[in-house]
Fold this protein.
Amino acid sequence: MQAAFSHINTDNPDLSAFKARGGKLITVQGLADNLLPYPGVVRYYEQVAAQLGGLASAQSFYKLYLVPGMGHFPVNGTANPDANPPIPPAPQVYAWLTDWVEKGAEPGRIDLATPVTAAHPRASSQPVCVYPQKATYMSGAIAAAASYTCS
């Protein structure tokens, strides 16, 4: 397949033309993704930042979110098939991008919640932070996003 896909150049970190045209980009990566391991996505993001003069320059148009418990978007990536980790549904990610592009609402910390179902009658929530920040527990309920800060 290498010959068939060699022309798509998905590893070029020079997004300067995209940025110059006002482009916005959000990558949501599961930490339990078994198809695209997250270290490669982080490495690419860091290469983009280096190419564009630093993290602040990259984050002005490109946000990376690492989601614990999420597999290859948007599925449960845990070893427990009955687990219900907070995972962003695709329409929510699209809404973040649309709000950023059309309303200037730049995304920052995002709190995710599990859906309440008969199998999971209690909701849990967790924050996801803009990389390289991570959610840090402060105090309160472990399964509540309000108990964490991004740092």
